[in-house]
Write a structure and sequence with these properties.
Blueprint (H helix, E strand, L loop, with lengths): L1 H19 L3 H14 L19 H12 L11 H4 L18 E2 L6 E2 L35 E2 L5 E2 L1 H10 L1 H5 L5 H13 L2 H10 L6 H12 L8 H6 L8 H12 L16 E3 L20 E3 L21 H12 L15 H4 L5 H11 L27
Antiparallel strand pairs: 1-2, 3-4, 5-6
Helix pairs in contact: 3-8, 3-9, 5-9, 11-14, 12-14
Length: about 400
């Protein structure tokens, strides 16, 4: 026994002596490298629901129909799926969305004439994997407290689901106030026998606005894309990503991207001030969270489907995004309303250069997963156009 203890003591002494050869800066760099490497994992293969809204097939079926039905909008012309369509990866190929009084699909969507409805002021997040919003580096998350929107103004998919219904430029329009529209939606749904039946199957108390939000949230939790090549790699398949992509992953971590884009969803879900240029379609600058010009870190999952990028869709491709971050490393703000002193220290600490961009972009492509629910209902109970006025 004494011999074994002596043997381990001798090994530990060698390790300690070896580590003493490193300078203090090298030790810190090694420690940081280890910490960052451990900050990533595959997405979970199962989805959690809040205790007050356990998922059931009945809720998911109802929620899917509501998601595609423009009956939820003031003018009966916009559905959730108008701006979050499966053909667009449940996002939209527009910088900022056109909701009420719009026509057409994706990049072809325009306002009808005459029009006095403003653009939706922010880029449409994809709904894919929002079931995992707020997930930590340790793969822990609370579905009831999941952070939503660019400005973190709502928690949980249930609370998020009602916000577009109340928003003037998104789905409400001129004819109803914020409080009136919710009562109007309940009255409309109760007047449709098929919805009455579907709600009765899914909920003991039938049609209520709370149950509308619960059903939509239950459906959105089925929209999961958690088997990207990166997920396969993190689950042990070393051949799932190429050597070049692995080098891109190392660069992604070493230049500092992982300071904010970490965890299974590649987001710390925290607000950061970056000085993104204003979108010229907006008449008033978007001040973000409490007019600080801070916005939540977006997920980097499924970037193939979420262009253009940033909170206002300013950048059309990933190269432009990385060039913007390179400007920040030189303490340059591209937004005259955001002085360089206000830029986030983590962004200023990036060590990004042009030569690394293509490899990082190559790695980011491993986060795409096209295996998700793309089935569109043939009809909705209201009889209105599926996914709104997109023809």
């Amino acid at each position: 026994m004494l011999g074994r203890n002596y043997h381990w003591s001798w090994i530990m002494s060698l390790l300690i002596l070896g580590s003493c050869k490193d300078s203090p800066d090298e030790k810190i760099a090694k420690r940081n490298s280890m910490e960052i490497t451990e900050n990533f994992s595959a997405l979970p293969q199962n989805v959690l629901s809040p205790k007050n809204n356990p998922s059931t097939p009945e809720k998911e079926k109802l929620g899917k129909l509501l998601f595609y039905d423009p009956i939820l909008s003031g003018n009966r012309d916009v559905a959730c799926a108008t701006c979050h369509h499966p053909n667009n990866g449940y996002a939209e190929f527009l910088d900022i969305s056109i909701g009420v009084n719009g026509k057409g699909f994706a990049s072809q969507r325009t306002f009808k004439s005459p029009n006095d409805i403003p653009f939706v002021k922010r880029n449409a997040h994809t709904v894919l994997n929002t079931a995992f919003n707020g997930i930590s580096i340790q793969n822990a998350y609370n579905a009831k407290k999941a952070p939503m929107f660019w400005d973190l103004r709502a928690e949980s998919l249930e609370k998020q689901a009602l916000e577009p219904l109340k928003a003037f430029e998104e789905m409400r329009g001129h004819d109803f106030s914020e409080t009136e529209i919710l009562d109007e939606i309940v009255d409309r749904l109760k007047a449709i026998a098929e919805y009455e039946s579907l709600f009765a199957e899914a909920f003991a108390d039938g049609v209520t606005i709370e149950n509308v939000s619960k059903a939509i949230a239950a459906f959105e939790r089925t929209l999961v894309a958690n088997n990207s090549r990166f997920d396969q790699y993190m689950r042990g398949d070393d051949d799932a990503i190429s050597m070049a992509e692995k080098e891109g992953f190392k660069l992604f971590k070493s230049v500092g991207c992982a300071q904010c884009h970490n965890g299974p969803m590649f987001s710390d879900y925290k607000p950061h001030v970056l000085g993104v240029p204003e979108n010229k379609k907006l008449s008033v600058p978007d001040g973000g969270i409490q007019d600080t010009f801070a916005f939540r870190t977006p997920s980097l999952r499924n970037l193939r489907f979420t262009a253009p990028y940033m909170h206002n869709g300013t950048f059309t491709d990933l190269k432009q995004v990385l060039e913007f971050y390179e400007d920040i490393t030189f303490k340059k703000s591209r937004n005259p309303l955001v002085p360089k002193e206000k830029l986030d220290p983590l962004a200023l600490d990036l060590k990004l250069s042009v030569k690394e961009m293509s490899q990082i972009i190559s790695f980011l492509n491993t986060l795409n997963d096209s295996d998700f629910d793309k089935e569109i209902p043939e009809s909705v109970p209201s009889g209105l156009s599926v996914a709104g006025n997109i023809q």
